[in-house]
Amino acid sequence: MSIKSLGKIAAVAAVAGLALTACADEDATQARNQEESCGLIQSASLKATESMNSIQATEGSDDRAAFVFESVALDLRNHSFDRSNDEPAPDSDETLKLRTALQVQAEQFQDMSDILGDDVNGLQNYDPSGIDVDGMSSGEATEIITNYCGPVFNQQQQQGGF
């Protein structure tokens, strides 16, 4: 084989290698984004649960709990701006409206913060079904987040996490 032929083969191999690296980088970025988003959602839920478990008031407001829920809402809302409404769904070709789903979740935590700031007992009657952000309901957002984060949460359970 001539040096010229080897050069052509090397050039083709280099281009193929770059293409594979680009795909791997894109896949790694998507996986990192997914773990980051799902970790934030998991952390938000844990903070909210711990806050609910530590509510001292049986009537009236609990400003500390309200602050925790407002903080969680802000974290989710801020994070949503780093995500798109065209996030690839794990293990399928569809795209998910992750940004809007995160904003719906943030709205739900904000509503709960407002209730806790007024009267702790108000949470007993709280129904998130009235939330609508850009045409997405709370139920739709939960479905999207479950679809997006399911593989991450399943992997954590298999590895003995949470």
Short descriptors:
162 residues, 4 helices, two-stranded antiparallel sheet, 69% helix, mainly alpha, globular
Characterise this structure.
With 162 residues, the protein is mainly alpha-helical. It is 69% helix and 5% strand. The chain has four helices and four strands. The chain has helices spanning 3-53, 63-80, 98-118, 138-158; strands at 87-88, 95-96, 132-133, 136-137. The strands form two sheets. Strands 1-2 form a two-stranded antiparallel sheet. A hairpin with a 2-residue loop joins strand 3 (132-133) and strand 4. Helix 1 crosses helix 4 (138-158), helix 2 runs antiparallel to helix 3 (98-118) and helix 3 packs across helix 4 (138-158). The longest helix has 51 residues, at 3-53.
Summarize the structure.
This protein has helices spanning 3-53, 63-80, 98-118, 138-158, and strands at 87-88, 95-96, 132-133, 136-137. It is mostly helical and 162 residues long.
What is the tally of beta strands?
A: 4
Main sheet specs? 2 strands, antiparallel
Order of H and E elements: HHEEHEEH
C-alpha end-to-end distance: 58 Å
Number of alpha- plus pi-helical segments: 4
Task: Classify the secondary structure makeup into a structural class.
Answer: mainly alpha
> Mean of residue pLDDT?
82
- Which spans have pLDDT < 50 for at least 5 consecutive residues? 13-24
Name the shape in a single word. Answer: globular
Give the spatial strand order of the biggest sheet.
1-2
| Helix fraction bin | 55-70%
Backbone CA Rg: 22 Å
| Strand residue content | under 5%
Assembly state (oligomeric): single chain
